[in-house]
Structures are given as C-alpha cells and as structure tokens.
Amino acid sequence: MDFLHLPERTIKPRTYGLTSIIDLGTPYEELKNILTDYSHLIDVAKIGIGSAYVAPNLKKKIDLYKEFNVKPYCGGTLFEKCYLQKKIPEYLHFLQLHGIEWVEVSSGTLDISIEERLNIISNLLKDFHVIAEVGSKDVNHHMDISEWKQEIELLLNAGCNYVITEGRDSGTSGIYNQNGKINADLISNILENLDYEKIIFEAPTPKHQMYFINEIGPNVNLGNVKLSDVLVLEAQRCGLRCETFFMGEHMLI
Asked: Domains along the chain?
C-alpha cells in the first residue's frame, strides 16, 4: 500500500541515486539471504580493502551479486598492491577469471600521480568499466580543494563511469577529518561545477549519509555502506527518519 507522499527515488538499473555497499567478508549464505530481501536497494558491491585476494568462494559470491543485478568490484587497495608489485596484468586476468567487469583505480595508500592514473585508465577502458577514487587514506596528506576538483574532473573526462571521494570505511580521512567531521567547504565546492550524479561519496555511517541526503537530496550516490545499514539508508532517503523527515518537501534532486 503506497499512501505516503515520499521523495521520488530512482529505480534499478540506476545511473545515479546509487547505494554502494562494502563487503568485508560476508559469508555466502548470509549474503544470499540479504540479497533476497534487499537487492532492489543495492546497486554496487565493493569487496573491501584487498580482501578479494584471500576471500573464500569469491567466484560464487561474484556470480551471486550479478544474479541479483548488483555490480561487484574489488577495493582500490588490491589495485594498489598489484601496482606496487608490478602485477597489473595478472590482476586484470584475476578480475576477468572471476567475471568482474568493474575496476577501481585509486591512490589512497600509494602516491600514484594523476598522470599515471589517467594513463592506466586509458588502457583499462577497452575491457572494463572504471571507477576512480580521489583522496588519501593518510590523514596527514592534505589536498587543496582545487586539487580535489581538478582530479575529479580529469578522471570523469578520461572516461571513468564514477569517481569516489575517499572516506575510508571508518569515515576518518579524505573528505572527513580524523574525528569523522565532514569537510563541508570541500563538499560545497565539489558540488558547484561537477556532476554529482557521477560522484560516489563514501559515507560509512548513518550520520554521514544523512548529511549528504540533506545537502544533495535523496538520490545522492553513497558508498562504503554497511550491508546491515541498507534498509536504514533507504528509509533515510525517503524521509522516514527524523533527520531527513522533511525531505519530501525540500528535494534538491
């Protein structure tokens, strides 16, 4: 029964309004139960950090995600590990062997220049959909707002499907400071001239998620969402929580 007036949500297959979850070792049978109930709310699944390399039943889980129309990919840490050891060709073979069609290019742990990342991306685009990430996991690494905006723009213009703003699974780096506070000036500047529909904001907690929902609207792309928070996030998007209660009256999207 649909009797409430709620914010209009995009529906799968979505190009924006994405919920991108982080999978840090969800057992297969548990994942199957979750997807049976909530796959209509999940668009993208990141096999977090470098865990895909040591995950049991990885191919089986990848096939399950794809069966439920969720796009799986491996966290950027695994890409960077392979880059450091000069194993990118082997990594790409690993992805193809497991049926993974999306790849993340990042510089969260290593200092990989934007020029080098753009060169890698140009070589990946013929075989993969590419998600790039901007920002460092090192809280002491400072990027000017202009640098954030320039990198995002360059990566989108290079053909990346989406660009992620770094926030870690803890919300303590990148677009956040060490205590988890959002850099509001950075976010407002990013939103000025860039296409928010192509940006995935890492928002690992309901508090972070509600900030972006209120700032941008119910169809903001959010990443690093815990599987246990998927339904809560959708309720927040729909104005069914106190902090987003008036979303239906004040939509920006």
From this structure: 19-249 (3.20.20.70)
